[in-house]
Specification:
Layout (H helix, E strand, L loop, with lengths): L2 E7 L2 H8 L8 E3 L6 E9 L2 H12 L6 E3 L1 E7 L6 E6 L3 H16 L12 E7 L4 H11 L7 E3 L1 E7 L9 E7 L3
Antiparallel strand pairs: 1-3, 1-9, 2-7, 4-8, 5-6, 6-7, 9-10
Helix pairs in contact: 2-3
This protein binds ligand 3AM.
Length: about 180
């Protein structure tokens, strides 16, 4: 069964900025820049019929291109930090696209996403990183000098069956048009 999620790709110019952040934290497994992405909707391991219905619903999404900007660094997991991410500045275009992806998932027969949507680009997964070391890393790196980028398509990615993680493969791409 394919393990699927929909996402926005990160342009190379932005990835080049993020690459500079890949050091100085013990316990971090830095994500390969080729695998940077912004997840819109995690689907997981589904059967072929569900995958087909979701894909069809994605292809019917009509949305305009929009701008995005990275906005600071953070960590998930609180006292047991499990990931470092670059945040994304609030964006109406992103909200619209995320809602459309949620509807597509429902059309594919999937249960509603229970988690709050926190748009981000994961930079590292952490194992055994100390919370104070994570705080010091975030403080040291400060903000990200990143330019705005235009989102003109989103994609359906697959990852290794059941296991997840990269490398991710673009299974389909969906253009955004005015
Ligand atoms: O966008 P990132 O890389 O932070 O953590 C997984 C990854 O997020 C997330 O989906 C993305 C692509 O694998 N993910 C994994 N399991 C999940 C789940 N059960 C999940 N998201 C929501 N629910």
């Amino acid at each position: 069964m394919p393990r699927l999620f929909s996402a926005i790709e990160i342009p190379e110019s932005v990835a080049e900025r993020l690459i500079l952040l890949r050091s100085g934290l013990s316990g971090a497994r830095w994500i390969d820049p080729d695998n940077y992405h912004l997840t819109l909707r995690f689907i997981g391991d589904v059967d072929g019929a569900t995958a087909r219905d979701f894909t069809l619903a994605l292809s019917e999404i009509v949305a305009a291109p929009f701008e995005l900007r990275l906005n600071g660094l953070g960590s998930f997991g609180g006292g047991k930090p499990r990931a470092i991410f670059a945040g994304i500045a609030p964006s109406d275009g992103l909200d619209t696209l995320r809602r459309a992806n949620e509807r597509a998932a429902r059309d594919g027969g999937l249960p509603p996403e229970g988690r709050n949507f926190k748009p981000h680009v994961t930079l590292a997964r952490l194992r055994g990183a100390r919370p104070d070391a994570v705080a010091a890393y975030l403080e040291r790196q400060g903000g990200i000098a990143a330019e705005t980028f235009t989102v003109s398509r989103f994609v359906l990615y697959s990852s290794r069956n059941s296991v997840g993680g990269g490398p991710y493969v673009v299974e389909a791409a969906y253009p955004l048009e005015n």
